[in-house]
Amino acid sequence: MGSTTTAATRSARERLLASAAQLFQERGINATGIDLVVRNAGVAKASLYNNFASKEALVVAYLEQELDGWVQHSRSLDDPFGARPERVAALFEALAVSVESHTFHGCPFTNAVIELPECVSVRRVAEHYREVVRAHLASIAGEDPTSTLVSRLFLLYDAAITAAKVGRDAGLVRQASTMAQELV
Amino acid sequence: MGSTTTAATRSARERLLASAAQLFQERGINATGIDLVVRNAGVAKASLYNNFASKEALVVAYLEQELDGWVQHSRSLDDPFGARPERVAALFEALAVSVESHTFHGCPFTNAVIELPECVSVRRVAEHYREVVRAHLASIAGEDPTSTLVSRLFLLYDAAITAAKVGRDAGLVRQASTMAQELV
DNA sequence: ACAATACCAGACAGATCGGTATAGTTAGCA
DNA sequence: TGCTAACTATACCGATCTGTCTGGTATTGT
Questions:
Q1: End-to-end CA distance of chain A
Q2: pLDDT in tens, A36-70
Protein backbone atom coordinates (compact mmCIF):
# COMPACT_ATOMS: atom_id res chain seq x y z
CA MET A 1 0.00 0.00 0.00
CA GLY A 2 1.06 3.63 0.31
CA SER A 3 3.19 4.63 -2.67
CA THR A 4 3.29 1.04 -3.91
CA THR A 5 1.55 0.79 -7.25
CA THR A 6 1.77 -2.14 -9.59
CA ALA A 7 2.71 -1.75 -13.22
CA ALA A 8 -0.72 -2.98 -14.28
CA THR A 9 -2.49 -0.41 -12.10
CA ARG A 10 -0.46 2.41 -13.52
CA SER A 11 -1.12 1.18 -17.00
CA ALA A 12 -4.91 1.10 -16.60
CA ARG A 13 -5.05 4.51 -15.01
CA GLU A 14 -2.73 6.01 -17.57
CA ARG A 15 -4.60 4.50 -20.45
CA LEU A 16 -7.84 5.90 -19.07
CA LEU A 17 -6.36 9.36 -18.72
CA ALA A 18 -4.92 9.24 -22.22
CA SER A 19 -8.24 8.08 -23.61
CA ALA A 20 -10.13 10.76 -21.70
CA ALA A 21 -7.72 13.46 -22.85
CA GLN A 22 -8.16 12.50 -26.48
CA LEU A 23 -11.93 12.13 -26.45
CA PHE A 24 -12.75 15.08 -24.18
CA GLN A 25 -10.74 17.37 -26.43
CA GLU A 26 -11.97 16.03 -29.75
CA ARG A 27 -15.65 15.60 -28.91
CA GLY A 28 -16.20 17.61 -25.76
CA ILE A 29 -16.75 16.33 -22.23
CA ASN A 30 -20.54 16.15 -22.05
CA ALA A 31 -20.75 14.56 -25.48
CA THR A 32 -18.37 11.76 -24.48
CA GLY A 33 -19.87 8.89 -22.53
CA ILE A 34 -18.07 6.73 -20.00
CA ASP A 35 -18.50 3.64 -22.15
CA LEU A 36 -16.64 5.27 -25.00
CA VAL A 37 -13.79 6.38 -22.75
CA VAL A 38 -13.48 2.85 -21.40
CA ARG A 39 -13.62 1.15 -24.80
CA ASN A 40 -11.16 3.60 -26.28
CA ALA A 41 -8.78 2.91 -23.39
CA GLY A 42 -9.07 -0.87 -23.85
CA VAL A 43 -9.99 -1.21 -20.21
CA ALA A 44 -12.83 -2.62 -18.15
CA LYS A 45 -15.49 -0.34 -16.83
CA ALA A 46 -14.80 -1.43 -13.28
CA SER A 47 -11.21 -0.25 -13.69
CA LEU A 48 -12.45 3.25 -14.23
CA TYR A 49 -14.38 3.26 -10.99
CA ASN A 50 -11.49 1.62 -9.16
CA ASN A 51 -9.29 4.56 -10.11
CA PHE A 52 -11.77 7.42 -10.11
CA ALA A 53 -14.80 8.05 -7.94
CA SER A 54 -16.94 9.39 -10.79
CA LYS A 55 -16.84 10.90 -14.24
CA GLU A 56 -16.36 14.29 -12.63
CA ALA A 57 -13.29 12.98 -10.81
CA LEU A 58 -11.96 11.69 -14.12
CA VAL A 59 -12.49 15.10 -15.67
CA VAL A 60 -10.61 16.80 -12.84
CA ALA A 61 -7.75 14.30 -13.09
CA TYR A 62 -7.62 14.86 -16.84
CA LEU A 63 -7.39 18.62 -16.28
CA GLU A 64 -4.67 18.21 -13.67
CA GLN A 65 -2.74 16.09 -16.14
CA GLU A 66 -3.15 18.78 -18.78
CA LEU A 67 -1.90 21.36 -16.31
CA ASP A 68 1.22 19.31 -15.62
CA GLY A 69 1.67 18.90 -19.36
CA TRP A 70 1.42 22.62 -19.94
CA VAL A 71 4.04 23.34 -17.29
CA GLN A 72 6.48 20.82 -18.73
CA HIS A 73 5.79 21.91 -22.29
CA SER A 74 6.26 25.60 -21.62
CA ARG A 75 9.41 24.95 -19.62
CA SER A 76 10.89 22.87 -22.39
CA LEU A 77 10.21 25.70 -24.83
CA ASP A 78 11.71 28.38 -22.65
CA ASP A 79 15.30 29.53 -22.53
CA PRO A 80 15.64 31.42 -19.23
CA PHE A 81 18.78 33.13 -20.53
CA GLY A 82 17.25 34.25 -23.82
CA ALA A 83 15.96 37.68 -24.70
CA ARG A 84 12.40 38.47 -23.65
CA PRO A 85 10.87 38.84 -27.11
CA GLU A 86 12.32 35.50 -28.18
CA ARG A 87 10.99 33.80 -25.09
CA VAL A 88 7.55 35.23 -25.75
CA ALA A 89 7.74 34.28 -29.40
CA ALA A 90 8.61 30.67 -28.55
CA LEU A 91 5.46 30.34 -26.47
CA PHE A 92 3.16 31.71 -29.16
CA GLU A 93 4.89 29.98 -32.03
CA ALA A 94 4.31 26.57 -30.44
CA LEU A 95 0.62 27.43 -30.34
CA ALA A 96 0.59 28.51 -33.97
CA VAL A 97 2.25 25.27 -35.04
CA SER A 98 -0.25 23.12 -33.20
CA VAL A 99 -3.09 25.09 -34.80
CA GLU A 100 -1.66 24.43 -38.24
CA SER A 101 -1.21 20.75 -37.51
CA HIS A 102 -4.93 20.44 -36.66
CA THR A 103 -4.18 18.80 -33.33
CA PHE A 104 -5.46 21.83 -31.47
CA HIS A 105 -8.88 21.79 -29.84
CA GLY A 106 -8.76 24.90 -27.69
CA CYS A 107 -7.83 25.45 -24.09
CA PRO A 108 -8.88 22.36 -22.10
CA PHE A 109 -9.56 24.46 -19.02
CA THR A 110 -11.68 27.08 -20.73
CA ASN A 111 -13.57 24.36 -22.56
CA ALA A 112 -14.25 22.46 -19.34
CA VAL A 113 -15.53 25.56 -17.55
CA ILE A 114 -17.88 26.24 -20.44
CA GLU A 115 -19.17 22.68 -20.48
CA LEU A 116 -19.50 22.31 -16.70
CA PRO A 117 -20.19 25.84 -15.46
CA GLU A 118 -21.55 24.67 -12.09
CA CYS A 119 -18.66 22.36 -11.22
CA VAL A 120 -16.48 24.04 -8.61
CA SER A 121 -13.63 21.52 -8.79
CA VAL A 122 -13.31 22.10 -12.52
CA ARG A 123 -13.34 25.83 -11.99
CA ARG A 124 -10.66 25.50 -9.33
CA VAL A 125 -8.27 23.68 -11.67
CA ALA A 126 -8.96 26.24 -14.40
CA GLU A 127 -8.12 29.09 -12.07
CA HIS A 128 -4.99 27.30 -10.95
CA TYR A 129 -3.95 26.97 -14.59
CA ARG A 130 -4.45 30.68 -15.11
CA GLU A 131 -2.24 31.46 -12.12
CA VAL A 132 0.45 29.18 -13.51
CA VAL A 133 0.33 30.87 -16.91
CA ARG A 134 0.50 34.25 -15.26
CA ALA A 135 3.51 33.16 -13.22
CA HIS A 136 5.28 31.90 -16.32
CA LEU A 137 4.65 35.14 -18.19
CA ALA A 138 5.83 37.08 -15.13
CA SER A 139 9.09 35.15 -15.10
CA ILE A 140 9.64 36.01 -18.75
CA ALA A 141 8.74 39.66 -18.32
CA GLY A 142 10.74 39.97 -15.12
CA GLU A 143 7.81 41.60 -13.38
CA ASP A 144 5.23 40.90 -10.75
CA PRO A 145 2.40 38.56 -11.88
CA THR A 146 -0.11 41.30 -11.06
CA SER A 147 1.66 43.94 -13.14
CA THR A 148 -0.02 45.63 -16.07
CA LEU A 149 2.48 44.18 -18.50
CA VAL A 150 1.82 40.61 -17.39
CA SER A 151 -1.93 41.17 -17.56
CA ARG A 152 -1.55 42.36 -21.11
CA LEU A 153 0.57 39.38 -22.13
CA PHE A 154 -1.97 37.11 -20.48
CA LEU A 155 -4.81 38.69 -22.43
CA LEU A 156 -2.94 38.17 -25.66
CA TYR A 157 -2.29 34.52 -24.86
CA ASP A 158 -5.97 33.96 -24.16
CA ALA A 159 -6.89 35.79 -27.33
CA ALA A 160 -4.57 33.68 -29.43
CA ILE A 161 -6.12 30.47 -28.13
CA THR A 162 -9.71 31.62 -28.69
CA ALA A 163 -8.91 32.86 -32.19
CA ALA A 164 -7.28 29.56 -32.95
CA LYS A 165 -10.21 27.54 -31.67
CA VAL A 166 -13.16 29.33 -33.22
CA GLY A 167 -11.51 31.15 -36.12
CA ARG A 168 -8.95 28.41 -36.87
CA ASP A 169 -6.66 31.22 -37.80
CA ALA A 170 -2.93 30.79 -37.23
CA GLY A 171 -2.47 34.27 -38.67
CA LEU A 172 -4.28 35.78 -35.71
CA VAL A 173 -2.08 33.74 -33.38
CA ARG A 174 1.00 35.24 -35.00
CA GLN A 175 -0.55 38.69 -34.79
CA ALA A 176 -0.99 38.17 -31.05
CA SER A 177 2.60 36.99 -30.87
CA THR A 178 3.81 40.16 -32.57
CA MET A 179 1.82 42.32 -30.18
CA ALA A 180 3.22 40.45 -27.19
CA GLN A 181 6.77 40.80 -28.45
CA GLU A 182 6.26 44.53 -28.89
CA LEU A 183 5.14 44.80 -25.28
CA VAL A 184 8.24 43.27 -23.67
CA MET B 1 -50.27 30.61 -45.05
CA GLY B 2 -46.91 31.98 -46.17
CA SER B 3 -46.03 34.94 -43.99
CA THR B 4 -49.25 34.59 -42.02
CA THR B 5 -48.45 33.78 -38.41
CA THR B 6 -50.94 33.90 -35.59
CA ALA B 7 -50.24 35.72 -32.36
CA ALA B 8 -50.20 32.43 -30.47
CA THR B 9 -47.60 30.93 -32.79
CA ARG B 10 -45.29 33.88 -32.41
CA SER B 11 -45.69 33.76 -28.69
CA ALA B 12 -44.80 30.07 -28.42
CA ARG B 13 -41.77 30.41 -30.66
CA GLU B 14 -40.56 33.50 -28.85
CA ARG B 15 -41.02 31.95 -25.46
CA LEU B 16 -39.05 28.89 -26.58
CA LEU B 17 -36.21 31.04 -27.87
CA ALA B 18 -36.14 33.09 -24.69
CA SER B 19 -36.13 29.95 -22.58
CA ALA B 20 -33.40 28.36 -24.70
CA ALA B 21 -31.27 31.50 -24.53
CA GLN B 22 -31.47 31.61 -20.76
CA LEU B 23 -30.83 27.93 -20.13
CA PHE B 24 -28.20 27.36 -22.80
CA GLN B 25 -26.18 30.24 -21.43
CA GLU B 26 -26.59 29.45 -17.74
CA ARG B 27 -26.20 25.67 -17.90
CA GLY B 28 -24.66 24.96 -21.28
CA ILE B 29 -26.29 23.43 -24.32
CA ASN B 30 -25.50 19.75 -23.86
CA ALA B 31 -26.40 19.88 -20.19
CA THR B 32 -29.85 21.32 -20.93
CA GLY B 33 -32.50 18.83 -21.98
CA ILE B 34 -35.42 19.52 -24.26
CA ASP B 35 -37.91 18.85 -21.48
CA LEU B 36 -36.39 21.58 -19.36
CA VAL B 37 -36.44 24.09 -22.20
CA VAL B 38 -40.10 23.30 -22.82
CA ARG B 39 -41.12 23.46 -19.16
CA ASN B 40 -39.19 26.69 -18.62
CA ALA B 41 -40.94 28.20 -21.63
CA GLY B 42 -44.38 27.17 -20.35
CA VAL B 43 -45.09 25.47 -23.65
CA ALA B 44 -46.01 22.02 -24.88
CA LYS B 45 -43.33 19.73 -26.23
CA ALA B 46 -45.11 19.44 -29.56
CA SER B 47 -44.91 23.21 -29.96
CA LEU B 48 -41.16 22.95 -29.97
CA TYR B 49 -41.18 20.46 -32.83
CA ASN B 50 -43.81 22.47 -34.69
CA ASN B 51 -41.43 25.43 -34.73
CA PHE B 52 -38.04 23.71 -34.94
CA ALA B 53 -37.02 20.54 -36.69
CA SER B 54 -34.73 19.37 -33.90
CA LYS B 55 -32.74 20.50 -30.89
CA GLU B 56 -29.92 21.40 -33.24
CA ALA B 57 -32.27 23.67 -35.19
CA LEU B 58 -33.29 25.31 -31.93
CA VAL B 59 -29.65 25.89 -31.06
CA VAL B 60 -28.99 27.49 -34.45
CA ALA B 61 -32.08 29.71 -34.12
CA TYR B 62 -30.95 30.73 -30.65
CA LEU B 63 -27.52 31.67 -32.01
CA GLU B 64 -29.03 33.65 -34.86
CA GLN B 65 -31.14 35.51 -32.34
CA GLU B 66 -28.04 36.25 -30.30
CA LEU B 67 -26.31 37.52 -33.42
CA ASP B 68 -29.18 39.91 -34.13
CA GLY B 69 -29.06 41.02 -30.52
CA TRP B 70 -25.35 41.72 -30.71
CA VAL B 71 -25.79 43.83 -33.84
CA GLN B 72 -28.58 45.88 -32.30
CA HIS B 73 -26.77 46.21 -28.99
CA SER B 74 -23.48 47.32 -30.50
CA ARG B 75 -25.24 49.77 -32.81
CA SER B 76 -27.15 51.29 -29.93
CA LEU B 77 -23.85 51.78 -28.05
CA ASP B 78 -22.06 53.35 -30.96
CA ASP B 79 -21.90 57.01 -31.91
CA PRO B 80 -20.72 57.07 -35.54
CA PHE B 81 -19.67 60.69 -35.14
CA GLY B 82 -17.69 60.17 -31.95
CA ALA B 83 -13.94 59.88 -31.61
CA ARG B 84 -12.45 56.45 -32.22
CA PRO B 85 -11.14 55.78 -28.72
CA GLU B 86 -14.51 56.67 -27.22
CA ARG B 87 -16.30 54.35 -29.64
CA VAL B 88 -13.94 51.51 -28.74
CA ALA B 89 -14.31 52.25 -25.06
CA ALA B 90 -18.11 52.11 -25.26
CA LEU B 91 -17.95 48.59 -26.69
CA PHE B 92 -15.62 47.24 -24.03
CA GLU B 93 -17.26 49.11 -21.17
CA ALA B 94 -20.60 47.48 -21.90
CA LEU B 95 -18.85 44.13 -21.58
CA ALA B 96 -17.23 45.09 -18.29
CA VAL B 97 -20.57 46.19 -16.87
CA SER B 98 -22.27 42.93 -17.79
CA VAL B 99 -19.41 40.99 -16.19
CA GLU B 100 -19.85 42.91 -12.98
CA SER B 101 -23.60 42.38 -12.99
CA HIS B 102 -23.07 38.58 -13.11
CA THR B 103 -25.34 38.26 -16.13
CA PHE B 104 -22.44 37.31 -18.34
CA HIS B 105 -21.89 33.70 -19.36
CA GLY B 106 -19.31 34.08 -22.11
CA CYS B 107 -19.62 34.36 -25.84
CA PRO B 108 -22.61 32.26 -26.95
CA PHE B 109 -20.95 31.45 -30.26
CA THR B 110 -17.63 30.36 -28.82
CA ASN B 111 -19.42 28.32 -26.19
CA ALA B 112 -21.58 26.60 -28.80
CA VAL B 113 -18.60 25.71 -30.97
CA ILE B 114 -16.88 24.21 -27.96
CA GLU B 115 -19.93 22.19 -26.98
CA LEU B 116 -20.81 21.02 -30.50
CA PRO B 117 -17.49 20.90 -32.33
CA GLU B 118 -18.80 18.68 -35.13
CA CYS B 119 -21.88 20.73 -35.93
CA VAL B 120 -21.29 22.65 -39.14
CA SER B 121 -24.38 24.86 -38.88
CA VAL B 122 -23.30 26.05 -35.45
CA ARG B 123 -19.82 26.77 -36.70
CA ARG B 124 -21.27 28.67 -39.64
CA VAL B 125 -23.23 31.03 -37.39
CA ALA B 126 -20.18 31.49 -35.18
CA GLU B 127 -18.05 32.45 -38.15
CA HIS B 128 -20.75 34.81 -39.35
CA TYR B 129 -20.72 36.46 -35.94
CA ARG B 130 -16.97 36.91 -36.14
CA GLU B 131 -17.29 38.58 -39.53
CA VAL B 132 -19.91 40.93 -38.14
CA VAL B 133 -17.71 41.88 -35.20
CA ARG B 134 -14.79 42.44 -37.53
CA ALA B 135 -16.94 44.66 -39.74
CA HIS B 136 -18.08 46.69 -36.77
CA LEU B 137 -14.52 47.19 -35.56
CA ALA B 138 -13.49 48.12 -39.09
CA SER B 139 -16.16 50.79 -39.25
CA ILE B 140 -14.86 52.25 -35.99
CA ALA B 141 -11.23 52.10 -37.02
CA GLY B 142 -11.96 53.43 -40.49
CA GLU B 143 -9.95 50.64 -42.04
CA ASP B 144 -10.40 47.47 -44.03
CA PRO B 145 -11.71 44.50 -41.99
CA THR B 146 -8.60 42.54 -42.96
CA SER B 147 -6.19 45.22 -41.77
CA THR B 148 -3.68 44.60 -39.03
CA LEU B 149 -5.31 47.17 -36.78
CA VAL B 150 -8.71 45.53 -37.01
CA SER B 151 -7.19 42.10 -36.37
CA ARG B 152 -5.59 43.45 -33.24
CA LEU B 153 -8.80 45.02 -31.98
CA PHE B 154 -10.57 41.78 -32.69
CA LEU B 155 -8.03 39.81 -30.69
CA LEU B 156 -8.48 42.14 -27.76
CA TYR B 157 -12.24 41.80 -27.89
CA ASP B 158 -11.96 38.00 -27.85
CA ALA B 159 -9.47 38.19 -25.03
CA ALA B 160 -11.72 40.38 -22.93
CA ILE B 161 -14.60 37.91 -23.28
CA THR B 162 -12.50 34.87 -22.38
CA ALA B 163 -10.97 36.62 -19.39
CA ALA B 164 -14.43 37.61 -18.25
CA LYS B 165 -15.80 34.07 -18.61
CA VAL B 166 -13.09 32.01 -16.98
CA GLY B 167 -11.32 34.57 -14.81
CA ARG B 168 -14.47 36.59 -13.95
CA ASP B 169 -12.20 39.57 -14.00
CA ALA B 170 -13.65 42.92 -15.07
CA GLY B 171 -10.21 44.42 -14.46
CA LEU B 172 -8.80 42.42 -17.35
CA VAL B 173 -11.67 43.57 -19.53
CA ARG B 174 -10.76 47.18 -18.78
CA GLN B 175 -7.10 46.43 -19.43
CA ALA B 176 -8.09 45.12 -22.87
CA SER B 177 -10.16 48.25 -23.38
CA THR B 178 -7.17 50.45 -22.59
CA MET B 179 -5.00 48.53 -25.03
CA ALA B 180 -7.62 48.85 -27.76
CA GLN B 181 -8.00 52.57 -27.19
CA GLU B 182 -4.25 52.98 -27.46
CA LEU B 183 -4.29 51.23 -30.81
CA VAL B 184 -6.79 53.51 -32.54
C1' DA C 1 1.91 -22.30 -2.89
C1' DC C 2 -1.22 -18.91 -1.51
C1' DA C 3 -3.73 -14.79 -0.37
C1' DA C 4 -4.39 -10.25 -2.07
C1' DT C 5 -5.20 -7.36 -5.58
C1' DA C 6 -5.73 -5.42 -9.83
C1' DC C 7 -7.51 -6.71 -14.08
C1' DC C 8 -11.13 -8.06 -17.84
C1' DA C 9 -15.89 -8.86 -19.86
C1' DG C 10 -20.34 -7.80 -19.65
C1' DA C 11 -25.08 -7.85 -17.59
C1' DC C 12 -27.83 -4.85 -15.17
C1' DA C 13 -30.38 -0.75 -12.94
C1' DG C 14 -32.63 3.62 -12.91
C1' DA C 15 -32.68 7.91 -14.92
C1' DT C 16 -32.69 10.90 -18.75
C1' DC C 17 -31.95 11.81 -23.51
C1' DG C 18 -34.17 13.48 -28.23
C1' DG C 19 -38.14 12.75 -30.59
C1' DT C 20 -43.03 10.90 -31.82
C1' DA C 21 -47.85 9.91 -31.18
C1' DT C 22 -52.42 10.57 -29.24
C1' DA C 23 -56.17 13.23 -27.81
C1' DG C 24 -58.51 17.15 -26.54
C1' DT C 25 -58.74 22.49 -26.54
C1' DT C 26 -58.73 27.08 -28.38
C1' DA C 27 -58.78 30.83 -31.83
C1' DG C 28 -59.37 32.75 -36.44
C1' DC C 29 -61.98 32.89 -40.59
C1' DA C 30 -65.02 31.81 -44.53
C1' DT D 1 -71.48 27.12 -38.08
C1' DG D 2 -67.93 24.43 -39.10
C1' DC D 3 -63.12 23.90 -41.03
C1' DT D 4 -58.34 24.62 -40.16
C1' DA D 5 -54.38 25.14 -37.63
C1' DA D 6 -51.80 25.90 -33.70
C1' DC D 7 -52.01 25.13 -29.05
C1' DT D 8 -51.78 22.05 -24.43
C1' DA D 9 -50.87 17.85 -21.82
C1' DT D 10 -49.05 13.52 -21.47
C1' DA D 11 -47.91 8.82 -22.61
C1' DC D 12 -44.65 6.51 -25.01
C1' DC D 13 -40.39 4.91 -27.86
C1' DG D 14 -35.64 3.33 -28.34
C1' DA D 15 -31.24 4.84 -27.24
C1' DT D 16 -27.89 6.29 -24.15
C1' DC D 17 -26.36 8.05 -19.78
C1' DT D 18 -23.69 7.21 -15.13
C1' DG D 19 -22.78 3.91 -12.02
C1' DT D 20 -23.06 -1.00 -9.77
C1' DC D 21 -22.52 -5.78 -9.57
C1' DT D 22 -21.06 -10.49 -10.70
C1' DG D 23 -17.70 -13.60 -11.89
C1' DG D 24 -13.63 -15.20 -13.76
C1' DT D 25 -8.33 -14.34 -14.82
C1' DA D 26 -3.63 -12.80 -14.27
C1' DT D 27 -0.08 -10.96 -11.57
C1' DT D 28 2.15 -9.90 -7.35
C1' DG D 29 4.71 -10.32 -2.96
C1' DT D 30 5.68 -13.39 0.75
A1: 50
A2: 999 999 999 999 999 999 999 999 999 999 999 99
